[in-house]
Amino acid sequence: MRGWWARAFGNRGERRAARYLRGLGYTIIARQHTNRYGEVDLIARDGDCLVFVEVKTRKSTAAGHPAEAVDRTKQGQLTRVALAYLKQHGLLNARSRFDVIAIIWPEAGRTPELQHFQNAFPPVGTGQMFS
């Protein structure tokens, strides 16, 4: 997948993930939050915990499970984005975590398979408040 179609497919997955989280009682705070370190797909509140959610949507597992795309490099980037968000909003003392939602959506019209990995990885990096 390339270009606009890939973005549209990813956006569709993010909308589905947001609906799923709202169904669990989460409050969606932001979608596609971007700062100088990159982007996080969703920021949500689960009770008193701020959740940074990476959503990976694929048509199949032919190239591996979607969650496998959230490798150590991506985890580091998400950690930096989250830390900047927390600093910007004066939330450095807030509880927070990283979740991954993997969606396999084989065809339009078919029900997607969604897996939610809560607390999917610890913050990555050195010399930060997380180390």
UniProtKB/TrEMBL annotation:
<dbReference type="InterPro" id="IPR011335">
    <property type="entry name" value="Restrct_endonuc-II-like"/>
</dbReference>
<dbReference type="Pfam" id="PF02021">
    <property type="entry name" value="UPF0102"/>
</dbReference>
<protein>
    <recommendedName>
        <fullName>UPF0102 protein Mal52_08790</fullName>
    </recommendedName>
</protein>
<dbReference type="InterPro" id="IPR011856">
    <property type="entry name" value="tRNA_endonuc-like_dom_sf"/>
</dbReference>
<comment type="similarity">
    <text>Belongs to the UPF0102 family.</text>
</comment>
<dbReference type="GO" id="GO:0003676">
    <property type="term" value="F:nucleic acid binding"/>
</dbReference>
<dbReference type="InterPro" id="IPR003509">
    <property type="entry name" value="UPF0102_YraN-like"/>
</dbReference>
